[in-house]
Amino acid sequence: MKNNIKFISLFFALCILITGCMDSVFTKKINTDNIKSTVNEFYRKFSTDYLNEEITVVNKDIIGWDGEVVKYIDTNNKVSRCTVIIYGEDEKSTSDYYFIEGYIYVTILKEYYTYPIYYSYNRPVDIMYRTFDEAVIYDGKIYKLVNGEFIKKDIDDVKMPYTSLHEINEAIGE
Questions:
Q1: What keywords would UniProt list here (predicted)?
Q2: Who wins on pLDDT, 23 or 162?
């Protein structure tokens, strides 16, 4: 009987240990400071390249949506950034995708209008409020910036129109 109790307690301790180790293996932590530092470096290089006219800008309409994609292509013919703008009746969404080595940094600005655009074409549309979100797409997973930490989220929670350059290219017929 005493051996059975030892075996059961050892078994439970081992199960707890294995569960804890599996969580640490399958949960990748995104270092916010490293992301911010890398994004700042990207901004500096992108700005310099843009000012030196080493970036080509291409605008394309999104098929089936009232919107457009602006691609920024570097001298190596690599897309370094995309801006996706989608217009709705009562909102406008601007998503910037920064293609950085190993991941995609995304900012999403949504502007909500006080009334639908079609209501009055003669007066300017007033913006009732704005929301701004930041996310990282890494290893096929989406991490949203929440209270200073990148937290793993579902695509429905982040509400970004596309999750890869491939999806953006399909949207504009490339």
A1: Signal
A2: 162
Is the CB of residue 107 less than 8 Å from the CB of residue 120? no
> Which structure tokens are listed for 56?
């080509």
Q: What ranges do the domains of the chain cover?
A: 30-171
Distance from first CA to last CA of the chain, Å, rounded? 71
The structure tokens listed for 13 are 């301790």
Type and span of the H or E element at 134: strand 127-138
The number of helices, as runs of H, and strands, as runs of E, in the chain is: 4, 8
Q: How many whole angstroms separate alpha carbon 125 and alpha carbon 120? A: 8
Q: Sign (positive/negative) of CA torsion 139, 141, 144, 147? A: negative
Q: How far are the Cα atoms of 38, 58, 83, 129 from residue 165, in angstroms, in the given order? A: 19, 14, 11, 29
pTM to 2 decimal places? 0.78
Contacts of 5 by beta carbon, 8 Å cutoff, 6+ apart? none
